[in-house]
Specification:
By secondary structure, this protein is an alpha+beta fold. It contains four helices and five strands; from the N terminus they run ααβββββαα.
Length: about 170
């Protein structure tokens, strides 16, 4: 299992994942992929979406808690943003865009829902960098990339310069 890099795998990165269902947990391939993704998420960054490795399901893993303290990999199934407020710009990076960092505007506080591995549904409100990380990973699950949120100036300058460098 490896992180799909942009631009080579752009078309795959833009495919939304499907909802995870109860039957998935009866499938050995699903369980093996989940285990591999948990291990991968510890190697680099704070989170990874299943779609970033070409696995078309709606789940992501974070290795930080809501206070941004490192923790064991936590799996979030079928997450959705319900409400966001107070947009703020903050620097973001992405495992699929090695060494590209952009100021991205996102809500600084979100209400969101997800299901955990035991099947329990959660409604949660988070703020700050954790809320932005959740939004970033959910975007991946919906086929949206952080460069889609970059300002026109950033796309013309930073993204274009990064693409030229990535092509060499």
């Amino acid at each position: 299992m490896k992180i799909l890099a942009y631009p080579k795998y752009e078309s795959q990165l833009r495919i939304p994942g499907r909802m995870v269902n109860e039957d998935d947990f009866k499938n050995q391939d699903f369980l093996q992929k989940l285990d591999s993704l948990k291990k991968l998420s510890l190697e680099d960054g704070i989170g990874v979406a299943a779609t970033q490795v070409g696995w078309g399901v709606k789940l992501f893993i974070l290795v930080v808690d809501s206070n941004m303290i490192e923790c064991a990999p936590t799996v979030y199934l079928n997450p959705a943003i319900l409400e966001g407020c107070k947009p703020e710009k903050e620097v973001e990076g992405c495992l699929s865009f090695k060494d590209l960092f952009l100021k991205i505007e996102r809500p600084s506080r979100v209400r969101w829902s997800y299901t955990d591995l035991s099947g329990a549904e959660h409604l949660q409100e988070d703020k700050g960098y954790f809320a932005k990380a959740v939004q970033h990973e959910i975007d991946h699950l919906n086929g949206k990339l952080f460069i889609d949120l970059a300002s026109p100036v950033q796309r013309k300058t930073k993204v274009q310069a990064w693409l030229k460098k990535a092509a060499t």
